[in-house]
Amino acid sequence: MVSSAALFNINIILSTIIKMSSVFLLPRALSVSEPRCPIEAIYQFGDSISDTGNQIRDHPVLYYAARLPYGQTYFHDKPTGRWSDGLLMIDYIAMDLKLPLLNPYLDKNTSFNNGVNFAVAASTALDDWFFAARNIPVKWANNNAPLKVQLNWFKTYLNSSVCQSNTDCARKLRRSIVILETGSNDYSYALFQGKSIQEVQTYIRDIVGAIVDAVREVIRLGAIRVVVTGTLPEGCCPIFLAAFPNSDPKAYDDKGCLRDLNEKGALAKLRPEFPHADIIYADYYAAFLSVLRRAESLGFEPRSTLKACCGTGGLYNFDKNLTKVCGAPGVPVCPNPDQHISWDGTHLTQNVNCHMSEFLINDTLSRIRCTQ
């Protein structure tokens, strides 16, 4: 297994996936009088950060998000497939836009009048053949639905349900937001298989290319508002903290996160290629750190900021062997998820998703132009 001191900086790579502007944009609060663009639909692509139920419809028996305690805080006795104790960031964004919660694409008995969620937990930006060629088993994604598959679902949906013609598609997509959130699993799978820094670095061009191509494709289909998210600070996540311990105190920052996994790279521009479109970077990294650095004042338990609420074992309440994970028989759940940052060692609690979404809404939605 790769040591934490040698681990390749995941967040530098992931933040270069789509380089949206030449400088980092700090969030600003929306004033009450500031007009909000009329958005009629959201189309979400991604992985478990955004999946509202696609993965469990593929193999419901295999995935713990199909059963309690997942969803217990908001959905009570009816888990939906969200990898949290309740709502996700995309849910809060939809509510802020006065839209219903997005239904998963694989639920064929529901409404898609206000958008569709194509995200699938454990999915990747790259296709399966890329990992197979490098002997990297994508073991957490039994029937992986990578970004290209999700884009094909999107086109099928448009052709069968929404558009009568290309012009009609463009007209309807102009009143929507497309959100792309993917790429993290591509690096995680390789790192957890012990791939070297040098080898993982060679994947950058392919992953960046897949996401940039997806941005181009949705814009060419008619979208004019595309949001591409960054990654969460992996070094603050219990699964990484448990898997890559370091005896050197200097390997950790002031919040106890692994430094080697938490730095940001630069952002560049796609805007000149599509001057008519808003291509916006949603800074998940900064949003998460804004919560972590204010954790105590926001009501989070200071001693539990890096511990999983639902889990057992070790310093971070997480079983690094992945045998006693959240949802498995006998694995305990903390009595106060709203005071924890990590829900299951890999995903966030509803309370964190709520606070992060406030940051993202103020920053991201405020940069959408309403003149088109």
TrEMBL record:
This is Lipase GDSL domain-containing protein. It comes from Citrus sinensis.
